[in-house]
Write a structure and sequence with these properties.
The complex is a heterodimer of chains A (179) and B (519). Chain A is mainly alpha-helical and 179 residues long. In chain A, 77% of the residues lie in helices and 0% in strands. In chain A, α5 runs parallel beside α7, α7 packs antiparallel against α8 and α9 runs antiparallel to α10. Chain A is globular and about 50 Å long. Chain B is built from 11 helices and 15 strands.
């Protein structure tokens, strides 16, 4: 019996430090994912990246399959210059849903951070192809992101063209709203 | 023994009492595999090989590993039927030193060839073939071959879609193609289109390959070996009322019966399977067949499906690198992901590695399902208190599967197999496996005939590890009434039953002969 217990020691040690075992994962105190996520986006908008990252990690620990929470981590980690964490989170987004525009957009940003500008182009193009035509904000953001990549490549005419296209998309959307 | 029994009992009880989005055994258990059918692992089996008329205590010599993917294939569903995906790397991993990391991996990759691209269907054949008759309209001249002869070989002309595959063994980062010295092309056995088109039995036999080193290989579309009343399970555990008069409770006779008292929902469906038989010496860390009492006898087994990955950081020379893979799914023990892991973590679980499973501890040690059972029955079914340390033996190297003195290793979801335990002769095997004293059965590895649904039901509710308060009637007679597979398994490698004919397949429904009651 003693040897059996000893053989289980590593597992029992794990048990002692396992997260969340005193409170079942499915029955924890009420936790509003929507509210927390809104808080995280607000912190990002205010450039409070450390607070946003903390919330993002908490959300991610509870629901690691949710791309929006990984995206908070990418955005906040990039803001803090934590490039490793941003890269890992963006990679998880690509792995979880290779075709998802959110992951492709973040992958483009991280590649740009890493100085891989042609690689960033590829990702932004793939994201743009998948952007819903009705999501004006996303399309404008991607067009401006691509323009920024071209500017870094000193391809100013192409960058200017994309900036104009972004304005055009934005204007068309506002016109549509008025109707 | 008791600990493992309790663990499985708990799992199974959970399974019975709660509606689950994916259960059969691993059909569509996570969002990512619900979207990627081809990469969906349905079941993993690992057992010491056996043969017909095998004498008791026959020394173990080889282990059979079977990976099933692509669930609930309707055999009539042409015209392209069910090829393996050439973009997926199918893999079975072996841990032989208790660290939950792969010490060797068997990788299988497929290639598809189309030889009749202008024909409307992937495979065709009839008799000795058919030619254009005298009144054939131009430009096809009378006598022109139109329909190829019945397919009797994997190289018959009617095999318009044919898949070849290679099996590689990766050990210490060295990749060896098994059977390379034979210079032989191995073909996957296609679905059984129907008796006019093909002699499926002949193809099945031809597609069972013997390779040097006492290795055997098979890949193809076969009868789905899993068996259960899936429909009743999904209907919020609305099990049939059988002989006892109480839903989900079997009589003693039903419990012992080697027949079905309820509908096997998976009957008549097919699945894609990869089977390997390898010498035990190839698997153990000592390179020998170890006795069951040896700490080196027990191995951990899990399977994965992976696709080429798109990576943030690109290789500096992509043409010189194969490129990384993105794991889509993994499976060790049946029912872990579908029964224990929360819906918001299933994809992460699927894509991570066993050695990292401590991150999922919160799901394992106080799972929701027993509490739901407890609530739904108004407390009539008592459940053990959390944390459920009785679940640990399933995810560590521990007795009664592993010998005393075996390092338990990290918590990791792997199928544990003591390769030193002799196989039970198939006619003597007990569907309840280790719970019924059949030492060669689940959870000591997993055989095709092991009834993991009933085992899990009883372990989950019975709480054998916890004590007699949870291991009593009716808990120890719980079952879905589906005790055996609808098609008989073969007595030798690859053991899998033949694919039902697309033309003549039958799904045994409730109320039909062999399908048990509707109620």
């Amino acid at each position: 019996m003693k040897s059996f217990l000893l053989s289980l020691l590593p597992a029992l040690t794990w048990l002692a430090f396992a997260p969340g075992i005193t409170s079942p994962a499915w029955a924890q105190a009420p936790f509003s994912f929507e509210k927390k996520y809104a808080e995280a986006r607000a912190e990002l908008a205010e450039r409070h990246f450390d607070k946003a990252l903390k919330i993002g990690r908490e959300l991610n620990a509870r629901t690691p399959d949710e791309l929006d929470y990984w995206a908070v981590i990418v955005d906040a980690a990039r803001g803090l210059g934590k490039s490793d964490e941003a890269e890992k989170a963006a990679q998880w987004m690509l792995n979880l849903r290779p075709e998802d525009v959110r992951g492709l957009e973040r992958a483009g940003l991280v590649r740009e951070d890493l100085g891989d500008l042609t690689g960033a182009e590829d990702m932004i193009v793939e994201a743009y192809k998948r952007a819903p035509p009705t999501d004006t904000a996303l399309r404008v953001r991607l067009l401006n992101q691509m323009a920024g990549v071209f500017e870094k490549q000193k391809n100013l005419p192409q960058a200017e063209k994309l900036r104009k296209e972004a304005k055009k998309v934005q204007a068309a959307a506002e016109e549509e709203k008025k109707r | 023994m008791l600990k493992t029994r309790a663990f499985f009992a708990l799992l199974l009880a959970e399974l019975m009492m709660v509606p689950m989005g994916a259960f059969a055994s691993n059909h569509r258990e996570a969002p990512i595999t619900a979207l990627d059918h081809k990469a969906d692992i349905t079941d993993l089996y690992a057992f010491v090989s056996y043969g017909p008329g095998q004498a008791p205590n026959t020394p173990p010599s080889t282990v059979t590993l079977i990976l099933c993917v692509d669930p609930l294939l309707e055999p009539a569903n042409g015209p392209t039927f069910f090829p393996f995906d050439p973009n997926i790397v199918y893999a079975i991993h072996i841990d032989n030193n208790n660290d939950a990391e792969p010490d060797m991996t068997f990788e299988v990759r497929f290639n598809t060839q189309q030889t009749m691209p202008d024909l409307f269907t992937a495979m065709a054949g009839a008799g000795t073939g058919a030619v254009a008759p005298a009144n054939s309209p131009a430009p096809v001249a009378p006598g022109t071959a139109i329909v190829p002869p019945r397919i009797t070989s994997l190289t018959s002309p009617g095999m318009g879609q044919r898949q070849s595959y290679i099996v590689s063994m990766v050990r210490n980062d060295i990749v060896n193609r098994l059977g390379a010295e034979l210079n032989q092309t191995m073909y996957a056995v296609p679905a059984n289109i129907g008796p006019r088109t093909m002699d499926y039995s002949a193809l099945y036999k031809e597609g069972t390959y013997s390779l040097p080193g006492n290795v055997k290989a098979f890949a193809g579309t076969v009868d789905d070996p899993f068996f259960l009343d899936l429909g009743a399970t999904f209907d919020t555990i609305n099990m049939r009322t059988l002989g006892s008069g109480v839903p989900a409770v079997l009589t003693d006779a039903e419990d012992l019966g080697k027949e079905n008292y309820a509908s096997d929902t998976v009957s008549g469906y097919a699945v894609n399977a990869i089977a390997l038989q390898v010498p035990i010496e190839m698997l153990t860390r000592t390179g020998r067949v170890e006795p069951a009492q040896s700490a080196a006898a027990t191995i951990g087994v899990w399977a994965t499906t992976s696709r080429p990955s798109m990576t943030i950081r690109r290789s500096p020379d992509v043409m010189l690198n194969q490129g990384p893979l993105r794991q889509v799914q993994r499976m060790g023990n049946p029912l872990i992901n579908e029964l224990l892991i929360g819906i918001g973590s299933k994809d992460k679980f699927s894509m991570d590695v066993p050695k990292n499973d401590a991150q999922f501890a919160r799901f394992l040690l106080d799972p929701a399902l027993p509490r739901v059972v407890n609530a739904l029955t108004g407390g009539v079914v008592p459940i053990p208190a959390a944390p459920r340390t009785d679940l640990l033996p399933l995810v560590t190297y521990a007795a009664p599967i592993a010998a005393q003195g075996t390092p338990s290793g990290p918590v990791a979801d792997m199928l544990r197999l003591n390769t030193g335990v002799s196989a039970t002769a198939p006619e003597m095997a007990n569907r309840m496996g280790l719970l019924a004293g059949d030492a060669a059965g689940f959870p000591n590895g997993r055989r095709l005939m092991d009834d993991v649904v009933d085992i899990a039901l009883r372990v989950a509710v019975g709480g054998v590890l916890v004590g007699p308060n949870f291991n009593k009637f009716p808990n120890n007679r719980l079952g879905d009434g589906v005790n055996v597979n609808d098609a008989p398994f073969k007595m030798e490698f690859p053991y899998l039953a033949e694919c039902p004919s697309g033309r003549d397949r039958r799904h045994v429904d409730p109320g039909e002969p062999g399908g048990g009651p509707v109620k």
